[in-house]
Amino acid sequence: LFVATWLALFMAKQISVPISALLEAAGEARRGNLSHRVRVGAVDELGSLVRGFNDMLEGLELSARELEKRRRFTEAILES
After folding, report:
1. pLDDT digits over 4-19, tens only?
2. pTM for this one?
3. Which 8-state DSSP code applies to residue 41?
């Protein structure tokens, strides 16, 4: 019974930790912090989800930088 309980808690932790980290990262992204990355050592499907989420945040961060650069360029042209 002890081993079964310990195994169930271990498996639950393997699932809940990456999901909690993804929720936290989604909140950070919603607040505008696109540099936040999820650091969880999952290797299964949740690991793939975490890597995909980090890749998405990286793409959003690059797009935001590019938009800011273009905005500054447009403002400089309009000022002159």
Report:
1. 999 999 988 888 888 9
2. 0.77
3. -
